[in-house]
């Protein structure tokens, strides 16, 4: 634990046989003084462990008996030049060792974490510094922030864990600055982390303080210059600054100075090989490990469980640096080639909307995230939805355990009469290791093939946060398709799952995976337009589905167009929202795209009616069965059933085995007629007479309404049944 300011005593002056320095009062004992006189021999002995060696050397040595620490860390500074020695002797701040010790004492006195300072110990020959040592308590089992960050990326890519770590470090740096100290070398390897007895991270510890400075007050400019050194992906860098300023907006002057210094530092690092070519060659030959090597920003990937998706790592201006410029020409060329065929299909399809009967069996579906959530709770909820198609997600980053959970769930669902679809979800690591991705897909489908009818390969491939940057990387995800089809010919393969209405991605991707998939899949969100009927240019949901089917047919895909994910974000869910994750300021309002739970329930039913009854979509799976930010139920409130759950439940039970027959747009209302009932709604309220023979009215959730000669239609669909 870091001591409080009042418990750290002032240091004592140290003079020993030509050596001078200062010593922590807790170590001011005869035994330690005797050991200190032999310090040069101690660090040269066989018991000393050399931890780090470049210009200076750092040793771990056993401490003499009776001291608070069992081991000591000795940093022996390289002998300075004559000029540097004169500068040290004339400076009030002292040598590097003296500054390291005094700054450590200053920080400890203000409750900021540093390794326990023991002493600084140096020997002068006239005005030339001959030896200089800084001694601290050695802390075992510490890792640098850089090392821990890299470990998280490789072994536990959890966004919430990383955010908690950032919050811990931001608070420690803020305390350091508020006590008037600037580090001036605040890189990730100079921030140490150590877990306490409960297995939680204790206060961060700052090391390599000799470049620092004590100021009366640390200005925003100085703070910006300091924090610009931290190597964080740009999206999380902004979050880090918000946390640093107490979960408040970032001051404009700070942001301006931070951008300036970060650009300066980036240029300085990039130009190092030109400024110091000999040093660059020499450093390559050295076997020096300061901390784990940070992967490039474009290869960083974290999973945000709260929103059920990867976290954004880079801001838009930084993402643009990593796109393949050649993909733009490929996109333009292939879209031009396919445009005539797609347009012919689209014009033909638009004349056949709602023109044919549609059997609804297995078309109404829902996603269940059993491997990233509570599998048992999901399966209990699905017992209320007999006959509902269920889409399971199997994640690469969950490994063999995730495959096992999905296998057991699929077997239970198939036995209960559900049609089961499987989504194979990539991560950035799976893109970087194609062999591991192919093995994962093979193992997953081999384990589940007896219980699944559809397999979607890849997910949101046009979103870099899901791990793919180029068309080449996306196409490589589907290399496993040939083997899967050969071993399991009865399974329908879907892809490439494009997110939102960005259909221009299909042409270049389908050209690269010709013959590898059977049906076209899309995560067709329309939440940015509000109501499903609202147009985006000339395309409302109806036209978007028609265009999707046209692209599938023009590409020779015989199994049609499938919507494998859609929803609307909800209000009042904070960082669980898929559009405001993984961090939100305390007083930040909900996004204008978010809707109320009642509105979402109405949009859900209208979406299914349009997409399925038009005849353009084979299946629609709602994402997700349970999720605080957008699910039919809220797992953080004991799986509270939202209005959308009850709307979906009644729709599935009523229409799931029915057949659509006729669509009408009359009296200012939309009418969908099925064999057993009719469903109607109006975007603007209107009073109408019920159709002949269907006078029993139920609301969106299946609650009977009072009989009347007229009914008022609104944006909330109602069901009309014939009398018993």
Task: Note the main attributes of this structure.
single chain; 724 residues; alpha+beta; eight-stranded parallel beta barrel; seven-stranded antiparallel β-sheet; 23 helices
Secondary structure layout plus pairing:
Layout: E1 12-16, E2 19-23, H1 30-37, H2 39-44, E3 49-53, E4 57-62, E5 71-76, H3 82-90, H4 96-109, E6 117-125, E7 128-137, E8 143-144, H5 145-155, H6 159-178, E9 181-182, E10 191-193, E11 205-206, E12 213-214, H7 220-227, H8 234-244, H9 252-270, H10 272-275, H11 277-285, E13 303-304, E14 309-310, H12 316-319, H13 325-350, E15 358-359, E16 364-368, H14 375-382, E17 389-395, H15 399-415, E18 420-425, H16 428-432, H17 434-448, E19 454-457, H18 471-476, H19 481-487, E20 492-499, H20 506-512, E21 519-523, H21 541-554, E22 561-563, H22 597-613, E23 619-622, E24 633-634, E25 640-641, H23 643-655, E26 659-666, E27 669-674, E28 678-681, E29 686-688, E30 696-698, E31 711-713, E32 718-721
Parallel strand pairs: 16-17, 16-23, 17-18, 18-19, 19-20, 20-21, 21-22, 22-23
Antiparallel strand pairs: 1-2, 2-6, 3-4, 4-5, 5-7, 6-7, 8-10, 9-12, 10-11, 13-14, 15-26, 24-25, 26-27, 27-28, 28-32, 29-31, 30-32
Helix pairs in contact: 6-8, 7-9, 13-20, 13-21, 15-17, 22-23
Task: Characterize the structure shown.
With 724 residues, the protein is of the alpha+beta class. Helix 13 packs across helix 21 and helix 22 packs parallel to helix 23. The N and C termini lie far apart (75 Å).
């Amino acid at each position: 634990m870091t001591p409080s300011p009042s418990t750290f005593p002032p240091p004592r002056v140290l003079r020993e046989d030509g050596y001078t320095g200062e010593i922590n009062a807790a170590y001011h004992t005869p035994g330690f003084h005797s050991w200190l006189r032999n310090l040069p021999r101690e660090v040269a002995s066989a018991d000393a462990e050399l931890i780090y060696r470049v210009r200076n050397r750092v040793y771990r040595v056993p401490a003499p008996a009776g001291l608070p620490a069992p081991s000591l860390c000795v940093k022996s500074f390289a002998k300075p030049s004559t000029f540097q020695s004169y500068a040290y002797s004339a400076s009030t701040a002292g040598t590097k060792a003296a500054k390291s010790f005094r700054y450590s004492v200053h920080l400890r006195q203000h409750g900021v974490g540093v390794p326990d300072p023991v002493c600084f110990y140096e020997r002068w020959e006239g005005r030339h510094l001959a030896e200089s040592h800084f001694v601290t308590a050695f802390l075992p089992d510490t890792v640098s922030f850089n090392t821990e960050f890299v470990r998280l990326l490789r072994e536990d890519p959890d966004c919430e864990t990383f955010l908690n770590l950032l919050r811990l470090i931001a608070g420690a740096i803020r305390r350091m600055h508020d006590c008037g100290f600037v580090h001036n070398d605040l890189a990730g390897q100079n921030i140490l982390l150590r877990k306490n007895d409960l297995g939680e991270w204790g206060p961060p510890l700052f090391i390599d303080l000799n470049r620092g400075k004590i100021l009366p007050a640390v200005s925003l400019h100085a703070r910006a210059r300091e924090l610009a050194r931290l190597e964080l992906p740009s999206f999380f860098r902004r979050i880090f600054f918000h946390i640093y300023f107490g979960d408040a907006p970032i001051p404009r002057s700070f942001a301006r100075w931070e951008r300036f210094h970060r650009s300066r530092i980036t240029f300085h690092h990039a130009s190092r090989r030109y400024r110091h070519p000999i040093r660059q060659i020499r450093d390559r030959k050295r076997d020096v490990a300061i901390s784990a090597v940070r992967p490039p920003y474009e290869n960083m990937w974290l999973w945000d469980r709260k929103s059920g998706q990867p976290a954004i790592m880079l801001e838009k201006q930084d993402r643009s640096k990593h796109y393949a410029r050649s993909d733009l020409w490929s996109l333009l060329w292939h879209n031009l080639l396919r445009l005539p065929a797609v347009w012919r299909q689209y014009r033909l399809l638009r004349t056949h909307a709602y023109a044919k009967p549609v059997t609804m069996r297995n078309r109404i579906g829902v996603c269940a995230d059993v491997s990233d959530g509570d599998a048992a709770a999901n399966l209990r909820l699905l017992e209320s939805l007999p006959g509902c198609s269920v889409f399971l997600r199997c994640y690469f980053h969950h490994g063999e355990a995730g495959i096992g959970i999905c296998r057991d769930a699929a077997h239970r669902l198939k036995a209960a009469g559900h049609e089961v679809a499987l989504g194979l979800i990539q991560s950035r690591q799976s893109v970087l290791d194609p062999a591991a991705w192919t093995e994962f897909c093979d193992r997953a489908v081999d384990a589940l093939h007896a219980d699944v009818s559809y397999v979607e390969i890849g997910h949101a491939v046009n979103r870099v946060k899901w791990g793919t940057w180029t068309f080449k990387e996306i196409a490589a995800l589907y290399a496993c398709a040939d083997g899967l089809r050969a071993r399991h010919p009865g399974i329908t393969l879907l892809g490439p799952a494009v997110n939102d209405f960005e259909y221009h991605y299909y042409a270049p991707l389908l050209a690269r995976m010709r013959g590898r998939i059977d049906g076209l899949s899309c995560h067709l969100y329309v939440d940015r337009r509000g109501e499903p009927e609202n147009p985006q240019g000339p395309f409302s949901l109806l036209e978007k589905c028609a265009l999707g089917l046209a692209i599938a047919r023009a590409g020779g895909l015989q199994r049609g167009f499938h919507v494998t994910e859609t929803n609307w974000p909800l209000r009042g869910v904070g960082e669980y929202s898929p559009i405001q994750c993984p961090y939100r300021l305390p007083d930040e309002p909900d996004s204008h795209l978010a809707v109320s739970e009642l509105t979402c329930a109405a949009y859900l039913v209208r979406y299914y009616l349009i997409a399925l009854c038009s005849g353009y979509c084979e299946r629609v799976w709602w994402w997700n069965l349970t999720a605080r930010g957008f699910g039919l139920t809220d797992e953080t409130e004991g799986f509270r059933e939202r209005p959308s759950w009850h709307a979906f439940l009644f729709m599935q039970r009523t229409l799931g085995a029915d057949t659509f027959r006729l669509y009408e747009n009359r009296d200012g209302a939309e009418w969908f007629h099925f064999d057993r009932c009719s469903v109607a709604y109006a975007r603007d309220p209107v009073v109408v007479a019920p159709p002949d023979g269907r006078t029993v009215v139920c609301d969106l959730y299946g609650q009977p309404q009072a009989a009347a000669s007229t009914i008022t239609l609104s944006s909330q669909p109602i069901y009309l049944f014939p009398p018993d």
